[in-house]
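Quick sanity check, GntR family transcriptional regulator:
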Amino acid sequence: MLAYRIDRRSGVATYLQIVQQTKEALRLGLLEPGDKLPTAREVVEATAINPNTVLKAYRELEREGLVEARRGLGTFVRRTLGAAPADSPLRAELADWAARARRAGLERDDVAALFNAVLEQTYTRDET
């Protein structure tokens, strides 16, 4: 089952963190159509956030057509995203790179900034 991680210092709204993490799980194939999301109560117990925050995130995912709420049953995945399975060889290469960056003394935010800069450069170049 999906376990949400809430970073209160990230500056990203809590409900958006839930939306982003759900989409990430969909992209990685960790969630598939028919899978049930954790109940609001389960998320609240695991993260100590307001139940309305969880419901807001789930409503946003439903608005985007990714999940559907079934009264009395829970919230279920309707469709998946992307094509980057969690067991992709690229993931292993990226994990090796991240480990090297950490050994080189880079902090998590430094690695994220470097990776995002490379993504921006790579995908901007492809669009032109």
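Posting the structure with no commentary besides this: The mean pLDDT is 91.
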